[in-house]
Amino acid sequence: MPLPRVFPTVVHMLGEAAARAPRREALAMGGERLTYEEYARCAAGLAAELKALGAAGQRVAFVLGNSPDICIAYFGAHAAGAQAVPLNPLYTARELEQMLGDAAPAAVFYEAAVAAAVEPVAAKLGIPHRWLVGGGGRRLTAWRNEAGLDGKLPLPDPDSLATLQYTGGTTGRAKGVNLTHRAYAMNISQREALMPSRPDVERILCVMPLFHVYASHVCLHTAAYARGTLVILPRYHPEETASALAGERITIFAGAPTIYTSLLGYEGFARADLASLHYSVSGSAALPATVLAQWEARAGTPIVEGYGQSEAGPVLTYNPLHGVRKPGSVGVPVPDTEVQIVDLESGARVLGAGEKGEIRARGPQIMQGYRNLPKETAETLRGGWLYTGDIGEFDADGYLYIRDRKKEMVIVSGYNVFPREIEIVLYQHPAVREAGVIGAPDSYRGEIVKAYVSLKPGAAATADDLLAHCKANLAKYKIPSVLEIVADLPKTAVGKIDKKQLKS
Hints:
Helices cover 30% and strands 26% of the residues. It is an alpha/beta fold. Helix 2 (36-52) packs across helix 3 and helix 4 (93-103) crosses helix 5 (115-125).
């Protein structure tokens, strides 16, 4: 499959959008609107200041929530020749200290809401430049009216490091993924081949956190690639999201499975005007087939599911927008990418269709490695392949299905049990809204399966009802030993069910 246009870097994308469509609305958040001309001026102004601070070739961290500022921070850092380090504003001071200590940035940008956590850590680590954004500090939109910056957006070296994306880290050591500009830009075009955007048309709603690789790829960079409008909400809220979908004439919506489930359960969503919606995207976790079907019936447009991870730039597969889409599958490999299923023991024997094993991949979008972690890099990048740690299988048509995380596999009396399989079965029960399955230590069987379930509003089911459903659909050793019905399941900052919190 041929690739659509590949830009050298994402900064080239923004520069061209500003040149070709200077007055088009680029960023929108509430009443604040920036055109592409203003957007590029802000990125150029920030890049000039960062260069003057000596940040070129260094790292620039930002601890910012969803706003135009974080968008400008990405492009400004990249344009300055610095490596962007986006961090979750919900991190504690302990987590921030570990990541900022590892990144050793030349500068850190942060908002007032996180100042109490960031400032002592930045001082302790001796980060040279600290920049409070808003709330008594300076907005990164400060250069929007400086016409002297037009056409002065610096363009970075495509082979230099673009982003240091931390993955994991709620327990143990977070791993910083090194990605180059070329890998970043290539992956956007790879994804565009299967899920094309429409130039000068798209209005993309972003409710996912922009510090995360999913939102930065599908929302931030897709908008710039398409010269479209990125409509930003500070966080997900069902009423505000439904209102924005209609009021902002959204054409592309990106969410996580928990967001789709929540919207479908929100009474006001049934009245929302979705006439402008062209397609929706699901990522961050596997989307239950029942939720996919309900969303497509309500929206009248496709929901497209793909697969990737930070180490993969991030996209490896997608269901084609204009082709066969298979519910429950994450689609086919993007162009110029090889994806294989290999045995869990050696990681070398390639398995056939219908056989479960570890997913490995190689392509131009793959990371350079983990920062300061040579051992972990060597374990993950072997023989030119990225070993994802995910369990999957291909069907006879070459469509990939994610079955579980290798590290989440539960061994019950010597049998391998994949929690995702049990979750799929639980989601098939009409009363189940969300399900999370984990393994727990057991002195007799080694491990047992525990399931946590929340019910749909107004639904009635007991734990015995759900266990009977599992018994009818699963081998005996896969049936949860413990099943708890709870009001809500804990979530991570990017909307995934938080398995670590379930285990604590």
